[in-house]
Amino acid sequence: MRSLEGARIPELLSTRLIHTVSGIRWLEDRHRDVSPGLMARAGAAAADRAQQLARANGCVLVACGPGNNGGDGFVVARLLRQSGLEVLVLFTGGEAALPDDAAAALGAWRAAGGDTVGELDFSSLGAVSLVVDGLFGIGLQRPLEGRHAAMVERLNAVDAPRLALDIPSGLDARTGRVLGCAFRATETVSFIGLKPGLLTADGPDYCGQVVVADLGIPPTATSGCGQVLDRAMFRGYLQPRRANSHKGSYGDAVIIGGARGMIGAALLAGRAAMHVGAGRVFVGLVDTSVPAIDPVHPELMVRSAASLAQAPAALAVGPGLGRSAEAIGALRQALQGKSPLVLDADALNLIAEDEQLAEILRTRESPAVLTPHPAEAARLLGLATEEVQADRVAAAVALADRYQCPALVKGAGSVVAQIDGRWTINTTGHPGMASAGMGDALSGIVTGLIAQGWAAQDALPAAVHLHGAAADLLADDGVGPVGLRASETIVAARKLLNAWILASGEHPQQ
């Protein structure tokens, strides 16, 4: 079972819900009177994970901070000591300032014969079997500095597995941003439920494998919560094909793009639409000086962009589009037409620069979806790229609201937002997808699914999930992550989509 660093959510996750920090606080308040208390339950769950991670030799080093995350660490330390492990507790806070529950946990640790140290000479530290991070939890909002920043860096340098309690110290639970520096965990045990920061932005690089300890709290939707993108969300579309069908049964997909020097982007998107099952695929090129054929896949029908911009089909506008007058004209025609649209790359940049095009998009009756990377999302929102990356969920939700269509913010933990404010985070895929053409392949996959009758709002998250899972499948077979090509993910997506349909056990719709 892969960790979130790679592809798959571990089976230990008890829920697909992703809670905001305020949502977690609400759940804590609602269940505060459970017996034993939440801190005791959290410590017991983390201690169980710690025992499984600890090496055979050396002490367990537990770093406890000045708040309730430190209290969780004291419970872990006490339970590990009771199990016979050698435990060293590094306490960075002041005892008088501890919250009540954390102070009680410290008292219980001392009553059990434990002690704490306020400073530690890491250079003379002996063998360590495990490092447990209980310094700062989900309430941290300012960068780690000074002593605590130095301590986190020293903990990261210890040669041992590393377990984070609830979230790695220094990682923003709301956004996944590193606040100055952050603990690099081998595994993170997230209490009650998932938080956005575990799954997006820097989170996958710092959390290691993520497991959820629900602490006995049943999965409960909270205000503003999201979900992990899951195949179950679109399983109803995974239907075997009828024997009595033909290419017209599976729709037409059209790719508009391919300016001079960027024709490959449009062809790549067209190939992707074909590989996920569109009945016919047309590629409308801005650059009409090239031969009207794809020599690798002659099944693609190549035309001019102008001739296809209002075709009665699922349209993707943007792969290799450029910013010429011809490109702007094709985009305007597509926006004014009645076909469902997938908007990517330069189509997004042109809309960001032209309020008239943006208004046509907002008010069109037929569906559209946006597939920007962070820089494109920033242009669409009038922000800096750093601002988008600072809160990827908020950016995706803002895009969907501003342009009144489902929107994606690509990247580690891609975020998909719907017009009504619902959002999901995808956990398939890996860093090998950071290569040219991946966005074009994704656009083609989305378009190919819409051509076959998928609702645009469902095709977008499904394509994101499938595309990442295809890359994971290739990595499992030794293809990548380094050197992975977008064209390889297209073929793998076809293989995986067929496997999902076969596994669905569904009968063709009547």
Q: Secondary structure elements and their pairing?
A:
Layout: E1 17-18, H1 21-30, H2 38-53, E2 59-64, H3 68-82, E3 87-91, H4 100-111, E4 116-117, E5 128-134, H5 146-157, E6 162-165, E7 187-191, H6 196-199, H7 203-207, E8 209-213, E9 226-228, E10 252-257, H8 263-275, E11 280-285, E12 301-304, H9 305-308, E13 314-317, H10 325-336, E14 341-343, H11 346-353, H12 355-363, E15 368-370, H13 374-381, H14 385-390, H15 392-403, E16 407-409, E17 415-417, E18 423-425, H16 438-451, H17 456-476, H18 486-504
Parallel strand pairs: 2-3, 2-5, 3-4, 5-6, 6-7, 7-8, 9-18, 10-11, 10-13, 11-12, 13-14, 14-15
Antiparallel strand pairs: 1-9, 16-17, 17-18
Helix pairs in contact: 2-3, 3-4, 8-16, 8-18, 11-12, 11-13, 13-15, 16-17, 16-18, 17-18
Brief summary:
By secondary structure, this protein is of the alpha/beta class.
Notes on the protein architecture:
β3, α4 and β4 form a beta-alpha-beta unit. The strands form three sheets. Strands 4-3-2-5-6-7-8 form a seven-stranded parallel β-sheet, with helices on one face. It has helices at 21-30, 38-53, 68-82, 100-111, 146-157, 196-199, 203-207, 263-275, 305-308, 325-336, 346-353, 355-363, 374-381, 385-390, 392-403, 438-451, 456-476, 486-504; strands spanning 17-18, 59-64, 87-91, 116-117, 128-134, 162-165, 187-191, 209-213, 226-228, 252-257, 280-285, 301-304, 314-317, 341-343, 368-370, 407-409, 415-417, 423-425. The protein has two domains: 17-226, 3-Layer(aba) Sandwich (Rossmann fold); 231-504, 3-Layer(aba) Sandwich (UDP-N-acetylmuramoyl-L-alanine:D-glutamate ligase). α16 (438-451) runs parallel beside α18 and α17 packs across α18. With 510 residues, it is an alpha/beta fold. It is built from 18 helices and 18 strands. The protein is 39% helix and 15% strand. Mean pLDDT is 94; it is low at 1-14. The longest helix is centred in the C-terminal third of the chain and has 21 residues, at 456-476.
